[in-house]
Write a structure and sequence with these properties.
The protein is of the alpha+beta class. Helix content is 42%, strand content 17%. Strands 1, 2, 3, 4, 5, 6 and 7 form a 7-stranded mixed sheet that branches. Helix 1 crosses helix 5 and helix 6 packs antiparallel against helix 7.
């Protein structure tokens, strides 16, 4: 059903679970994004003149491109609304940055914790599920869509499966591209996000 990626392929580092680990990683992510992905107009929106000048001279720009951390009360309220406890790497992420908007061209960003939902409940998710349900031999995909949390969306989806939990408490994560029908599996949300970081190079 899906491709699988993991640490044996050199893509995934240690699972990020604490807000401090996530903060350090997201700072590195932001720096790499600015250098390798942001175009001129976007840089002007994100940085002031001194930062732009420093970036031009290939210096290190200290800028936080994420959101403010989620309050623990908001995180718990989101878990209660969904009837789950988020896996450790997702909890740590939200406590470092409540959402993220600068990803690739196919995923707009990670939702804030208050907007995380079951894929089946969202307009886009239910529409994709209905399309795949109408095509023969897609039952595995359809079942995954019905039970997964949607944590990011654009043209593609990032999903977490609460029924596939590893010994570390992490849920299987998926990057799903409906246009091509490709589903890539990762051992955790942390691994999925770190794979995105590797793709920025």
């Amino acid at each position: 059903m899906s491709e699988t990626t993991g640490s044996d392929e050199g893509v995934v580092d240690a699972v990020l679970t604490s807000p401090q680990e996530w903060r350090g990683f997201l700072e590195r992510y932001g720096e790499r994004y600015l250098k390798n992905c942001a175009d001129g107009d976007e840089l002007v929106d994100l940085l002031d003149e001194d930062q732009l000048d420093l970036l031009d001279r290939e210096g290190r720009v200290d800028v936080w491109l994420g959101e403010a951390p989620a309050r623990k009360e908001a995180l718990v309220a989101s878990e209660e609304r969904l009837g789950v406890r988020f896996p450790p790497s997702l909890r740590g992420f939200f406590l470092a940055s409540d959402g993220w908007t600068l990803l690739d061209a196919w995923v707009d960003g990670v939702h804030p914790c208050g907007r995380v939902s079951w894929m089946r409940d969202g307009d886009a998710g239910s529409s994709v599920t209905a399309v795949y349900e109408s095509i023969p031999d897609n039952e595995e995909y359809v079942q995954l869509f019905r039970r997964s949390l949607e944590i990011a969306r654009g043209e593609d989806f990032w999903l977490l499966d609460p029924t596939d939990v590893g010994p570390d408490g992490e849920w299987a994560a998926y990057d799903f591209a409906p246009k091509y029908g490709t589903l890539t599996e990762y051992p955790s949300f942390s691994a999925l996000f770190q794979s995105e970081y590797e793709d920025l190079a």
